[in-house]
Task: inverse folding
């Protein structure tokens, strides 16, 4: 058994005066502090991103950690949810006792996300990058068009996701975008890559976070109630969007099945879900892949604001990547929010008596997925 | 910024040479007979066998999905709006391309298209195909 013992965000939003390493360090310091631990206790280290090469070596050097277990698995935005699963496995095998998962990015202050790249293109990417598809949004737009064609999904249904998520953000003082928004606002916002409008797309912010996972033995000493990792799964189906086997089926179909089976938790017993919402279409496809509704029915599923505050399917309760923060790879924030909800710390946005949560990260262009099921002790 | 262009390697040189000669060449597995795109060198991703042969595709296909790009990457900014599509080739594989000479509002999934090599760099674009 392994439990989340501490979580923290770094500064969020626009952070021009700190490097991503400092932000990771500060979030890690706070998350460890919440668990009653210090950097000296960390024997398992997990990170991805930053300058990409050797993420854990860079972070360990910066923090003064010599880990017994190191894992720089980078499967895009799903990485940190996968790390939580890897940490559980490592702890179960006795390879480490205190695992630190950390991420931060200053992509906003560095001038926004990369939408393309000039010059010579090597390898399989040369069959995609030459066409001017803006990434990642264009790839998600291709999936959205296909879903609309196959199932009659509408822009209004996509917009429901953005609107419900914004309503959660209005209850989260840390959320970047808190103005009320309507379906009409989403539909009237400018096209980025049809059928996705500006407000179908996640934010571009700075930010970071850290999650501490500890063994059952260590969990006894936690100052706060432990949040147990009950099950996990991960998979990927492609890297480039041209190679996605089915544009409407994300690898959450497999990561979710594995995580739920391992946990023994039934979907109907979950109190909330935290899904990576890089784009509104990501959420619809993930709901189907995780089996919360049948293929093609996600548009109906989210109708009437049922995923928003007061609805019967609380989802992305921090305001998500769409409205709260999105520093390049969002996955770690699903773990942070689910942990706080299960501890009952979420104030105005608290889901009453939340006991079980599911987190799902998505990486690349619907390429990878990682799922964990969390339960309060 | 320069527009991205393909940098051929030992696996993809044949494909780009064929494009320069006006053909869309793809690979076919000697063992299972499945067509392969993008080029894989020697190992079939369908059955894992060694041995892929180059064959010339018909150049006919249908639109599997598409997007009208409005916020283009900086090096393509002057060209927006334009249509990037995934094309299901008659032989089976799916590839990305750009649709030329179409009204973005008139593009639909399932629309028949055919190869139209052109541009600088020279690339395998697609255009509307009658029937």
Result:
């Amino acid at each position: 058994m392994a439990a989340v013992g501490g979580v923290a965000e770094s500064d969020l939003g626009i952070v021009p005066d700190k490097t991503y390493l400092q932000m990771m360090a500060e979030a890690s310091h706070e998350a460890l502090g919440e668990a009653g631990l210090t950097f000296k206790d960390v024997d398992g280290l997990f990170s991805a991103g930053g300058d990409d090469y050797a993420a854990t070596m860079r972070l360990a050097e910066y923090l003064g950690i010599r880990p017994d277990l190191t894992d720089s698995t980078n499967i895009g935005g799903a990485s940190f949810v996968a790390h939580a699963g890897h940490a559980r496995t490592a702890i179960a095998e006795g390879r480490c006792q205190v695992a630190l998962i950390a991420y931060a990015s200053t992509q906003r202050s560095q001038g926004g996300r990369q939408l393309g790249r000039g010059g010579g293109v090597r390898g399989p990417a040369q069959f995609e990058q030459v066409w001017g598809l803006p990434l990642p949004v264009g790839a998600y737009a291709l999936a959205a068009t296909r879903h609309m064609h196959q199932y009659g999904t509408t822009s209004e249904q996509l917009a429901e996701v953005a609107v419900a998520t914004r309503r959660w953000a209005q209850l989260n003082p840390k959320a970047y975008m808190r103005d009320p928004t309507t379906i009409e606002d989403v539909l009237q916002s400018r096209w980025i890559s049809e059928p996705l409008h500006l407000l179908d797309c996640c934010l571009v912010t700075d930010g970071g976070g850290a999650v501490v996972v500890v063994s059952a033995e260590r969990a006894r000493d936690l100052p706060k109630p432990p949040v147990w990792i009950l099950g996990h799964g991960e998979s990927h189906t492609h890297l480039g969007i041209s190679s996605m086997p089915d544009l409407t089926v994300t690898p959450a179909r497999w990561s979710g099945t594995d995580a739920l089976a391992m946990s023994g938790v039934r979907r109907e017993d979950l109190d909330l879900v935290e899904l990576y919402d890089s784009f509104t279409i990501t959420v619809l496809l993930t709901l189907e892949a995780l089996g919360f509704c049948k293929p093609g029915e996600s548009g109906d599923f989210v109708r009437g604001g049922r995923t928003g505050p007061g609805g019967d399917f609380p989802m992305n309760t921090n305001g998500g990547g769409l409205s709260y923060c999105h520093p390049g790879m969002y996955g770690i924030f699903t773990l942070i929010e689910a942990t706080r909800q299960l501890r009952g710390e979420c104030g105005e946005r608290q889901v009453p008596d939340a006991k079980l949560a599911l987190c799902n990260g998505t990486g690349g262009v619907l390429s990878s997925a990682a799922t964990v099921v969390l339960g309060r002790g | 910024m320069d527009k991205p262009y393909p940098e051929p390697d030992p696996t993809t040189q044949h494909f780009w040479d064929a494009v320069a000669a006006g053909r869309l060449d793809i690979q076919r597995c000697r063992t299972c007979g499945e067509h392969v795109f993008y080029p894989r060198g020697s190992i079939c991703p369908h059955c894992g066998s060694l041995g892929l042969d180059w064959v010339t595709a018909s150049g006919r296909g249908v639109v599997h999905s598409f997007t009208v790009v409005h916020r283009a990457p900086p090096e393509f900014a002057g060209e927006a709006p334009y249509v990037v599509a995934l094309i299901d080739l008659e032989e089976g594989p799916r590839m990305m391309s750009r649709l030329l000479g179409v009204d973005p509002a008139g593009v639909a999934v399932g629309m028949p298209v055919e190869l139209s090599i052109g541009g600088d760099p020279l690339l395998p674009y697609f255009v509307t195909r009658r029937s």
Summary: Strands of chain B lie at 5-6, 25-29, 35-36, 52-56, 60-69, 82-89, 94-99, 112-118, 123-128. The first strand of chain B starts at residue 5 and ends at 6.
